[in-house]
Write a structure and sequence with these properties.
This protein has 463 residues and is mainly alpha-helical. 66% of the residues lie in helices and 0% in strands. The chain has 19 helices and no strands.
């Protein structure tokens, strides 16, 4: 390493007399910093760096560097920018609608205020940020505002159904009676939606019994057996996801009711709902199974496992929560349909628990029949039925989450107990084989299998 030589300094002779006139006047002595700058002019020039300073962008920055920004923290300036942009947008929109332009309407006011909010917010952010940061802030504002809008709409729909149906929901008979003895002019203390709730649960149960096995098997086939036929099936499934519900109802009505002679019943309605639910479950399950890492399959194949045992013990347990979500999506598609049920199951005001004979009604169809009546009591029953439908959907969602919400590799207490018992059986079997081998070779038998059982028993488990 080469070191630059320092500037040569003239040595001072000890005791040398000072030159005349070299004595400095009082107060004319130079500061130490000035003397160091004179002694090392090159170091002074090296410490000076050319840079461009923009006003308003380096406030609070350390000397010699730009200000560091924390991208994940919420700063006071961000809150001020949002509040200021919102206030300015409301004021400008009011000025446009009330003073300058002949605009009216709440929808136009909200849309105009939102657009002005984005413009003012972009202007305020541009005072402190660069171009990419401005785009990022605007995109974040749009995404969060749309998410907030969806939440507000969902809360409004649920709240409106509960408020409009509160007159019917407070009566116990609404959940325990059907409409056999209740007419349009009967009070809310007579009649209920029990027949519709029972019909919905029966139809959805039959539809899930058909669609869940068929949908999961088809999704596994599309991923594990690739080929021209698999591509054809995937194309058909993707096309059927946009199938109108009335077409599914007409298909079952023409083939099952008219062709096979089956009377309108809950089974026919369940088949119509299955036609709509099946492509949704297949498509969602197909996407979920694709996300399973290929290394898991390769590890199973390397251990000598067959393809279908790999699917059953590795692939499906890994994506169990995703498969549950696909079933929930299919159920949500079928549980709210009206036209297929009306075409294939008809309408009745009585409770019918036999899906093979007689008409059957669902909650959406009962809601439609109640709401189209001009009587206030029937309208209240309609909104109460809609609220009951949302409660049934929530109940099915909770049950599905409990069944399939465990992560990959997580076992229940019963499964863990069976695993421990099977491990102990395997240990005794292996020890018996080893003892038989030693006896045949003329050696003493192995000790008891208690040690093997203790080693294979996980801590905290009981046999």
């Amino acid at each position: 390493m080469t070191v630059a030589p320092e500037a040569p300094r003239a040595p001072e002779a000890p005791g040398a007399p000072e030159a005349p006139g070299a004595q400095e006047a009082p107060g004319a002595q130079e500061a130490p910093e000035a003397q160091e700058a004179q002694e090392a002019p090159d170091a002074r020039r090296a410490s000076v760096r050319a840079r461009t300073t923009l006003p308003g962008r380096t406030r609070g920055a350390a000397d010699g560097g730009e200000r560091r920004r924390a991208l994940t923290s919420l700063r006071a300036t961000d809150v001020y920018a949002v509040l200021g942009a919102a206030a300015a947008a409301l004021a400008l929109t009011w000025l446009l609608f009330a003073r300058l332009l002949p605009f009216t309407g709440a929808v136009g006011f909200v849309v105009t205020a939102y657009l002005l909010f984005l413009l003012v917010y972009a202007l305020l952010v541009s005072f402190d940020e660069d171009g990419p940061a401005i785009v990022d802030r605007i995109a974040a504002a749009v995404v969060r505002s749309l998410g907030l809008l969806l939440v507000v709409i969902l809360v409004f729909v649920v709240s409106y159904a509960l408020v409009e149906g509160r007159a019917a929901l407070v009566h116990l008979n609404f959940f325990t009676e059907d409409m056999q003895l209740a007419g349009p002019l009967e009070p809310l203390s007579v009649g209920g939606a029990l027949h519709a709730a029972a019909g919905t649960l029966i139809m959805i149960a039959l539809s899930l019994a058909v669609t869940v096995p068929a949908g999961l098997v088809c999704a596994v086939f599309l991923n594990e057996v690739p080929g021209p036929f698999a591509r054809f099936v995937r194309t058909v499934v993707e096309a059927m996801t946009a199938l109108p519900s009335i077409v599914a109802g007409l298909f079952v009505y023409a083939t099952v009711i008219l062709g096979l002679g089956m009377p309108p019943s809950g089974l026919a309605a369940a088949l119509a709902l299955s036609v709509m639910m099946l492509p949704i479950i297949i498509r969602a399950a197909d996407v979920v199974i694709r996300l399973v890492p290929g290394t898991l399959r390769e590890a199973a194949y390397a251990m000598g496992t067959s393809r279908w045992r790999t699917v059953w013990h590795v692939v499906l347990p890994t994506c169990r929560s995703g498969l549950t979500t696909s079933v929930i999506l299919g159920t949500a598609r079928g549980i709210g349909e009206t036209s297929p049920v009306l075409l294939t199951a008809g309408f009745t005001s009585e409770l019918n628990l036999d899906p093979l004979h007689g008409p059957m009604v669902s909650l959406p169809l009962a809601t439609f029949q109640f709401v189209k009546s001009p009587e206030p009591t029937m309208i209240s029953r309609g909104f109460g039925t809609a609220a009951l439908l949302m409660a049934v959907v929530l109940l099915l969602f909770v049950v599905a989450r409990v069944i399939g919400g465990r992560g990959p590799g997580q076992l229940t207490r019963r499964q863990e107990h069976r695993r421990v018992v099977q491990s102990r059986r395997d240990a005794r079997r292996f020890t018996g084989r080893a003892a038989a081998t030693r006896e045949s070779a003329g050696r003493p038998a192995a000790p008891s299998t208690q040690l093997h059982s203790n080693l294979l028993t996980p801590p905290g488990s009981s046999s």
